[in-house]
């Protein structure tokens, strides 16, 4: 997978890769949710099972969250404008047939992505993102991947593997697109650090600089970093999104912690 950040337009092949990941990860999520609800997983409690690392979140909350996101993103894509959309809080899951509602939302999201030009205008919450449909295919590919991992943990199931190249793209998106969304908030607004990130299985690295309320990410190894975090792309993706990940952190841990997603 080629890094998108060096291109003016999203290649159709890359957009298709992201869309396929949305479908694959979303369907896996839906199957796990139904199995958990039916008592066919090691975890007890059905959809009331807790998500280990998301405080106060249950499996039902995860299903509801993604189902709302499906409809919110479809609305953004169909609007074809960079104007801010209505809040997703205006959307709500049904009291009954949660699984059918989730499945319908996923179908509509995938179908909308497949029939939308990657370069069509679309609002995005990050100032570092291209305001195009391509940004949403990318965001949803990684959102579904991470939340699928969350749901498997709630169900006490083994985690299905993540394609390393896709995981590396998820790390790139988090560092270069997601973090700048929060650069005006604590602790990024007052933090000052240079952090290196190394994906050991991809021979890929990034340098993230936080200074003066701004986040800047560039490809390549960091010179004289305050901290460095290294691991496989999948483990980095999980760690940087605040999930348990087998990574090695060297240097100032408080500097490395600035990179964590929310």
TrEMBL record:
List the Gene Ontology MF annotations in alphabetical order.
Answer: isomerase activity; metal ion binding
Q: Which GO terms describe its cellular component?
A: plasma membrane
Q: Which domain of life is it from?
A: Bacteria
Organism lineage string: Bacteria, Bacillati, Actinomycetota, Actinomycetes, Geodermatophilales
Lyase is among the record's keywords: no
Q: Does the keyword Acetylation apply?
A: no
Query: Mind telling me which Pfam families this protein's record contains?
Result: MDMPI_C (PF07398), MDMPI_N (PF11716)
Q: Which UniProt keywords apply?
A: Isomerase, Pyruvate
Domain Mycothiol-dependent maleylpyruvate isomerase metal-binding: residue ranges: 40-152
Start and end residues of each MDMPI C-terminal domain? 167-253
Q: What is this protein called?
A: Maleylpyruvate isomerase family mycothiol-dependent enzyme
Secretion signal: which residues? none
